[in-house]
Amino acid sequence: MILRLFRRDHGGNVVETLYQRTAEASRAPALYAALGVPDTLEGRFEALTLHLFLVLRRLRGLPAPAGDVGQELVDVSFRELERALREIGIGDLSVPKKMKTIAKAFYGRVKSYDEALASEDAGALAETLARNVCGGGAPAFGLAAYVRAAEADLAGFDLEALLAAEAPFPPAARFAGECS
Q1: What is the number of alpha carbons within 13 Å of residue 124 lying toward its C-beta?
Q2: What is the model's pLDDT at position 178?
Q3: Phi and psi dihedrals of 2, rounded to 5?
Q4: Smallest Cα–Cα separation from 88: which of 25, 40, 27, 21?
Q5: Higher pLDDT, 167 or 174
Q6: pLDDT tops 70 at residue 42
Q7: φ and ψ at 7, to 5 degrees?
Q8: Ubiquinol-cytochrome c chaperone domain location, by residue (predicted)?
Q9: 155-159: long-range contacts, CB 8 A cutoff, minimum separation 24
Q10: In angstroms, what CA-CA distances link 118 with 10, 112, 149?
């Protein structure tokens, strides 16, 4: 019943649109070219997870029915990930096992990003992002600056504005000059 509130008059689901905009932001070329996200299947999953985390974190800070929107966003995301697995040729018998692995990775990342953003250690987020998104190495300070800016930008959105926003994330290219 609550999902009817999130459907546009022309039949489109605003949560699916929010997912699409979030996925688009996770594919910004500057994330890969300038901020150190590997342009691989795994790197793209990590970028999508990071962007979903940021939207979900904002939704957690908003009053009802934002929690329902967050759950629907997760549901849409996992449906799209499952569809993508099938498109790349993963067999029907293997999909549930792969989805379990993806879910474990997703929720593990969400937890580690939450902890890193809550930490008073300025380098904690850069180190967490380097480990999870960039595959190790030096702290990802440019990516961390992008994440903090995205979190600050998203803080200015209420639920209605977030669902209507064309681009709720800052341009990743803006952070290309940061240490990455």
Answers
A1: 11
A2: 56
A3: -65, -30
A4: 40
A5: 174
A6: yes
A7: -95, 135
A8: 34-167
A9: 155/58, 155/61, 157/58, 158/62, 159/59, 159/62, 159/63, 159/65, 159/66, 159/69
A10: 40, 10, 15
